[in-house]
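FW: tagging you since you asked about this chain on Friday. Here's the raw sequence from the shared folder, copied in full. Didn't touch anything.
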Amino acid sequence: MTTPTHPKQAATVLLLRDGAPGLEVYLLRRTRGMPFAGGMTAYPGGGVDPRDGDVETAWAGPSPAEWAHAFGCDERTARELVCAAVRETFEEAGVLLAGAADGDVVPDVSGEEWEAQRQALLARELSLAELLAARGLVLRSDLLRPFAHWITPPAEPRRYDTKFFAAALPVGQEARHVTGEADEVSWLTPSAALAEMSGGTRPMLPPTIHTLGQLEPFADVAAALAGSPPEPLHPICPSFDDEPDGRWAVLPDGTRIRMVVPLPS
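HL: got it, structure written out here
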């Protein structure tokens, strides 16, 4: 028996908007060469960076202590997770959940100077705290909602303790295909995304499938954010069953999710 890999803290964001067909969520299809979840559809997100815990990060909204209660972790980890959620959304979707201290949200982050700072974040030449300070902005934790908590099973070689957040696309900003980790981006209703998954054209990992199912009943962004699960969130760590008809993820409550693997390129 090998010792299970300790899961890395990670954050991912369900970025939402009200589209013509109803509530839509921003989805990335990860490139097939990625070492984790290659070819799978997912949300913007990634692992925590050590500087995400900088106490110098200007902050407005629910405190790290409140986020620690929501996710059942310590304050340092909570600060890292919220900062990672904001940083990764900017890095992978070009959307920045920040604003002025007076409560306004920054309306546009698509110019050349913004892009240079986004690239510096990706290269770890700049921290989120430094970006916000240079712009005179504060992180807006009130734009985020705790949504889910998933932990990769112990048997997996790559493990993540992932906190899922939900957030509305800020007015005046547009999500952009700027990440090199995805070969396709889409705004889809949860129902449309799940239909493509069921048809075998949009493979997803169980957390994505399950959280899309959680979003499906909501008519619009306001309802989705107001309907976030109660706190604190209970972590979900699935097990797997191999059956003649394929592999299934089994959740603690008995829910079974059929795994769909990417088709060969």
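FW: The chain has a mean pLDDT of 91.
HL: agreed, and The chain has one domain: 8-228.
FW: great, closing this out.
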